[in-house]
Specification:
- By secondary structure, the protein is mainly β.
- The protein has two helices and 13 strands.
- A hairpin with a 7-residue loop joins strand 2 and strand 3.
Length: 220
Amino acid sequence: MLLLRSLLFSTLAIGLWGSARAEEKAAAPPPPGVVIAASPDAGSIFVASPSIAVLPDRTLVVSHDWSGPGMHTTRTSIYSSSDGGQIWQHLADLERQRWSTLFAHRDALYLMGVAKSFGDIVIRRSEDGGKTWTTPTDAKSGLLLKGRFHTAPVPVIVQDGRIWRAFEESESPKHRRRFSAFLISAPEDADLLDAANWVCTNRLAFHPQWLNVRRHEWSE
């Protein structure tokens, strides 16, 4: 329970501290738990998309991306803690990685999301606890699907011998939030960087008559 509480407070601290406006940050007390990352300019650069994984040796690894009008690149940062979340070490900055989920699988650490906002689906692998990562340059190295895709740090699930993750496809730049939801999956013993090992379900568009909502879309 104490470990889970520490994970929760540490992960929440990323979003709370990073998205606060500059003047509020100066006046308000720090958030609960341990601050892992803070924005250098909270008014225009936001700490977003937090994800956390626990390695077999109980090391904690956290990722988040940077967003906002002050960010001109697509970047995700990686941190780790070996003392239950009290002290954190910055490990890596990954360009062209956004809205991503960390997960540990078969003695390796993975990061799965998109290359940019409404971009290709990509996955990376680290075999040293998050210090160094593969680069998704083609279909054999983690570039899984080209197109206009949206997501968030949603769970990665292993069920009945397969790994599953949800995404949304964006129809066009003109209707960028007209999403169709689908799942992508691969055998759990496959090379997860090889696009040939992944398959997709059919896309499911949102019918406006299903629910009385203001925005007719699937999201995250």
